[in-house]
Write a structure and sequence with these properties.
By secondary structure, this protein is an alpha+beta fold. Helices cover about 20% and strands about 30% of the residues.
Length: about 375
Amino acid sequence: MGQQSPEVSSMHRPSDQSGFSLFELMVVMGVMLIVTGATMGLMRNSVKVSNVTYELSNAQQNLRTAHEQLNRDLVTAGDGLLGINNIRVPRSFVLSYLSQSLISDCTTTVCPLTVVTSDNDVPVDTTVPGFTPTVKVLGSSTKKTDRLTILQMDQTFTPVSLVVGTITSNTNGYVVTVPTTAIFNSVSVNDVYFFTSSAGQTLGTVTAKTGTNQLQFNTTNSYTLNTTGTTGSLRVVAGTPASGASTLPVSMMQLQVIHYFVGDDGILYRRVFGSRDVAAGSGYRDNVIAEHVTDLQFRYILRATGSSTPSQPVVAQLTTGLQQAAVRQVEVTVTTETTKPIVNGQRQEVKMTTSTAIRNVLFREADRGNSIWN
């Protein structure tokens, strides 16, 4: 047999092992740079939008909180005060703690407290007593803020009946003898109480406690509420002669004096005098309602005075007792700002206005033709 020659395997050329050219690499890197830059830009815008949304939401939350608390107190303004229309306190107390804009019914020594007491465009550098470090009412030479004071009875406090002869006057002030030791023990120095009788109403500050049932209301007190002399506020209410014991039965209660203002620290404060919730010995309590507040304004919608004036008048400041008696609604405008600059390096402001009806004002309808405080 003849021998067969073996098959010769075909020879393959090796594959090309060369890499990307420099031009190709630059093109790829350029495309990657463009894609990465676009992605980062989208992420940056997303983060920016997220931050702006957060800042605006925070400012709006402060705004809603401020309006909710203010409107809640306005709705209940005058609660428990039906028939009470002659609340007299020292002029110095009102000027120091409540309002620089006194109504015309104030005398040189006494001012009436009403359901709603206004203070429009508070002067710049008005210091708020009781803060360390010092806090002033927010304002500048171009923009000033308002303050508002609301009265309502503290319904959680059980009134104390003081019979004839249980309030006596002396050269230092007054001594109130309470009926039980339990009541005496529940009272602390600097507590603020409300006294009412057929002769009128007033506020007083406890300055000392003696024995087992005597509370002293001396003229030297924290809030200048106690006054002596022939026009001494508690003396008038109790029917107390120049010396001796009271001639009228008196009720001792707690009246909440609720005061709203914005400090120069941008905080909306709610200060309450005379509440049972106030810590013993402190006299008043300050609560922070909202932060980053830049403006607070009030306008007062009054009762129409006749058929010829169907539209209710609107005023920014209540100047007389008759105007205060005619308040039917309070328009509240609050402005807050973001905590950080979000637009062109500036903080963004948010403003909202609400109007709240004052329900408990019927007791102020008497003597429309004359001052209701006479």
